[in-house]
Amino acid sequence: MTTETPGRRPKAGNGEDSIYWDKSKNRYVGAVSRGYAPDGTRRRPKVYGRTKTEVRTKLRDLKRDLAAGVKTSSKYTVERAVNDWLARGLKGRDQASLKAYCSLAKNHVIPDLGKAKLHELGADDVDEWLEAKSEELAHETLKRIRSILRRSIALAQRDGAVTRNVAELVELPDGQAGRPSKSLTLEQAQKVLKARPGTWIHAYVVLALLVGMRTEEERPLTWAHVHTETGHDTRPHVDVWRSVRKKGDTKTKKSRRSLAMPKQAAAVVDAHRKRQQEACEAAGVAWTPDCLVFPNDEGQLRSSKSVLTNFRALLKEAGIEAPKQWTTRELRTSFVSLMSDHGIPIEVIARVVGHSGTATTERVYRKQIRPVITSGAEAMEDIFKA
User: Fold this and answer.
1) CB crowding 315-347: b at 16 or more within 10 Å, else e
2) Residue 117: other Cβ atoms inside 10 A
């Protein structure tokens, strides 16, 4: 029986694996012989460890991966995998989504896990990381950062850089509670609907609060999808067929819907259109049904920041306390709350707001939903009676 001591490197036979001590790295090295590359250089993938036992285990895993066609690289880190996914795995996403994913990756995933070799990352590592993050992050943010890691590893799997996706093997812990959504009371909503009449933000708020449109659906809305006329078998309505997403699609298939407008909303929107047409005529600019309903000063898509700033200014004028603590999405929350208070069934509310079922409506708007035993436009006409 022979023993090997650090500093002595036995010669391996042709085609054999070898384990030896590397003094410069203060580690044992395991090398697998893979023949020669086209340029004549030897192919010898290597693994490192503090003990021979550790190296033997890594060699076994390496040979298994090589047999499975996995192009494992000891230099391929989690950071590289995440950056590869950010560069190649987000096709079709709008700029806001890209910015959000990059921010989460660079602030939470890469700083904590980036230096780890991807093929050495274990489920326990991911589990410990998520548990630590759950102490500081909201649950939704926790879901997003795990999704970034999971999808990054999935891309690496597709490229043959790793055999399994350890991010799929862990359960998501409960994160911190996010900021709860608020909703306007009926009295507050009535004040808001009277603030800054004759302005675009007033018409914007009216559509959101009385029709239940998402702000991402309002910003790209064109006049071709707004119908204020009343016919024998038609009533004023909005075709919610687009959003600000990269390809213009709505959030889900159920989100693609046509919503009736209450008479109050139709009157406000119609007056807004006439003002816009007069402004275009005065400026010598052609007005067409393809024009945006709520454009910026250059006639282009208005930013979400512009909408938020003007919305908060409207709230301040309406006398709403702490206007800077409100967001535009809470107009939709208020819509749901007012509908529920009025006795509209959750099934109807879910259909109006574009949810595929009642589960999302109950989960997202649980504080606004009341159990009831008894559609949108008719309810709003009744709630805000002239």
Assistant:
1) beebebeeeeebbbebbbbbbbbbbbbbebebe
2) 17
All structural domains of the chain with their residue ranges? 18-67, 78-169, 186-383
- Catalytic residues, by residue number, are 214, 251, 332, 355, 365
Among the listed residues 336, 384, 376, the one whose alpha carbon sits nearest the alpha carbon of residue 360: 336
State how far the Cα of 6 lies from the Cα of 23, in Å rounded to an integer. Answer: 8
Does pLDDT of 246 surpass 50?
no
Q: What is the pLDDT of residues 82-119, one digit of tens each?
A: 999 999 888 777 777 888 899 999 999 999 999 998 88
What is the Cα–Cα distance from 209 to 360, expressed in whole angstroms? 19
**Minimal CA–CA distance to 46: which of 98, 129, 117, 95?**
117
Element (H, E) at 22: strand 18-22
Per-residue pLDDT tens digits for 38-89: 666 776 777 778 888 888 887 787 777 666 555 555 678 999 999 999 998 8
Asked whether the beta carbons of 28 and 22 are under 8 A apart, the reply is: yes
Segment 211-216 mean pLDDT? 84
When the pLDDT of each residue in the chain is averaged and rounded to a whole number, the result is 80
| CATH architecture entry for 78-169 | Orthogonal Bundle (1.10)
Q: What are phi and psi of 31, to 5 degrees?
A: -125, 140
| Range list of β-strands (E), 91-248 | 226-227, 237-240
Query: What CATH code would you report for 186-383?
Result: 1.10.443.10
End-to-end CA distance of the chain: 99
